[in-house]
Model the fold of this input.
Amino acid sequence: MTDAAELIRRTRELLAAQPPATTDRLDFLKARFDAGLAWVHYPEGLGGLGAPRALQAVVDAELEAAGAPDNDPRRIGIGLGMAAPTILRFGTEEQKRQFLRPLWVGEEVWCQLFSEPGAGSDLAALGTRAVRSGDHWTVNGQKVWTSSAHLARWAILIARTDPDVPKHKGITYFVCDMTDPGVEVRPLRQVTGEAEFNEVFLTDVRIPDAHRLGEVGDGWRVAQTTLNNERVAIGGMRLPREGGMIGPVTKTWRERPELRTHDLHQRLLKLWVEAEVARLAGERLRQQLAVGQPGPEGAGMKLSFARLNQEISGLEVELLGEEGLLYEDWTMRRPELVDFVGRDAGYRYLRSKGNSIEGGTSEVLLNIVAERVLGLPSEPRTDKDVAWKDLAR
Done:
């Protein structure tokens, strides 16, 4: 078993062999991956050493102290937080070796082709079709709300492969090459003025069967691994005290006493406490994750994340008064990442509205918490045993 002392030794060996000050950033990241120090809980040869997940913090602290570069996790968050855990659990050895290294070092950006115009909250109702012909699948359909599709080389994709069985049973999970013929990415302009999301049209896209994850028809089970990890990644991110959306509000409160009122003070105190509770709950969730796969508890964290962001950004706009109504720039852009803290209050207020939709709508997540965390009876379903092709649409 690799312990903390061994990880420190290996990290210092890496730093000695590849000094961050004189080593190309990408070369350093590749060497780190090959040394098993990328994600220490992954198997040897795949960027890890089979060590306890909790020991990753030991490696990260050594590297940060030495000024080593990171892999820009915000830019490649979908790959790190969603694609990689799914590939590790369901991928073949060949798939793991093909995808995980360039994913982790940031050579290849990933996106997620799940939601559709007619299958968002009810994701299992998706209609994108994949038809097998020999060792390839031909895919036709439309996906929507796809972050980073304009940057991505690869996508995780779920498609309907059997319309004659109930909707959850006829889905298969694939890895799609976004550079293939037939993949068209169109920007979706948001209320912020930007097009951070996209819609993706798939027309006779050929995907080799070698890029299928899991068994044919088992895509819904594979997708649950992705979705559970997504909710942890969104709602359970590591933050310092007063990190995230509460930070700019508290900074304004301290620096501009002329804006304070008793009512705003009471609301700020309440939200500060809730943000701190959520931060500590996220830390506990990550500790649970360190000893197993993420469960439905991530849905609760993601719910809290969305509600808090919207309430805090609303308070910030009120605190700033007329200034809060300003918005710095309506220029149409296609950004690489979401920057809540680095933008103005107007951006935070507008962009936070999407938090209750992305990563699972709040309404769906409430059902997940009720049924899978609290053990309450599930809602009646009339479509459980009905073939997808016979569902009303």
Remarks:
- Residues 238 and 283 are 7 Å apart (CA to CA).
